[in-house]
Amino acid sequence: MFVDRVKIELRAGRGGNGCVSFRRERYIPRGGPDGGDGGEGASIILEARHGVNSLAQFANRKFWRAPCGSPGQGSGCHGRAARDLKLYVPIGTALIDAEHGFVIKDLVKAGEQVVVVRGGKKGRGNVHFKSAQNQAPRESTRGGEGENRLVVLELKSIADVGLLGMPNAGKSTLLSVISAARPEIADYPFTTKHPNIGIVRPTVDSSFAVADIPGLIEGASEGVGLGHDFLRHVERAGLLIHLVEPMPSDGADPVANYHTIRSELASYSPELAKRDEIVVISKCELTGASEVRDAMAESIGKDVRLISAVTGQGLPGLIRVIVQHLDDARKRESEADPSQEPLAVGLRVGEVMASKQPVKPRRLPPHLSGPTANLSDQNQPRDYNEASQ
Hints:
- This protein has 9 helices and 14 strands.
- By secondary structure, the protein is of the alpha/beta class.
- The chain has 2 domains: 1-155, GTP1/OBG domain (Spo0b-associated Gtp-binding Protein, Chain: A), CATH 2.70.210.12; 161-349, P-loop containing nucleotide triphosphate hydrolases (Rossmann fold, 3-Layer(aba) Sandwich), CATH 3.40.50.300.
- A hairpin with a 2-residue loop joins strand 10 (196-203) and strand 11 (206-212).
- The N and C termini lie far apart (81 Å).
């Protein structure tokens, strides 16, 4: 089950109470207070991690509670602090405050984490209250309550390229041909119920992620069809591939279909409508696809490509153009922020950082690194002793 939006309640653990205790041992009169402190309550942390693809683990469990700290004990024994509860979410998850609607944190990198609710403070034992005037204190403090928060987790897929188009435009077929993804493919509208992500590897050392978005129709930005729920998955795509079917099954005009999708993008997000775009006429094996390509190019005033996922026509050229667009975009980002080096195509941030870590030298065993490193059957210790004399 694919879940991309869920509302949950998070409650941090309560701190352990302080202890009221007095030292009572034989031959030690007036032992004094020795009550220990309680332990810290556990916090709840959200962390983005590779391999987590959905928010399904939160679909049937709406309340998460972190463990509480242990209370203090006598003889100066402090309570054990509770271990923080760490919840793993997909990369691209936005943490939103359910009450006020603002974004608390956008987890867009692997390993990025945020403390959503903090655990309660520990209670203090009576040993902290002793003084010259109060030598037998019976005061202690209770552990603090943990924070409680109602949040919304919203998944926005991270992909280098997003596939757009009307239903049955050939998006899922294209994704299955150029990558190892296996989305559902059928000859009826809205076959794709949730976004699918595939990895395309043009060369051995490079790759990029492609997201297949469910088909959009007129009114998608207002909640019509499936577009309102899934348009947010294309927000993070750096490049849009707009697929246009040359001969729609409903007899619609392909050029009009293109402008319909463009208007829906502008209504949903003006910034998204300004994103780099490559217009592609799919199913070019059909008769009349070239005429549709010419009409489309004349209408929008830019180049339009022809491809066929069945015959493979135009696919190598399309992949080369995508790689060039992604490289140019990363170069512009590096020029705007010189402190950040451009990432290689398709490499994840964690992989790039790992590749830049210094390699530790291999540690040799003592018999190969110490004074005996040069000894062998031909070079015995006695030979060195005779040479020194």
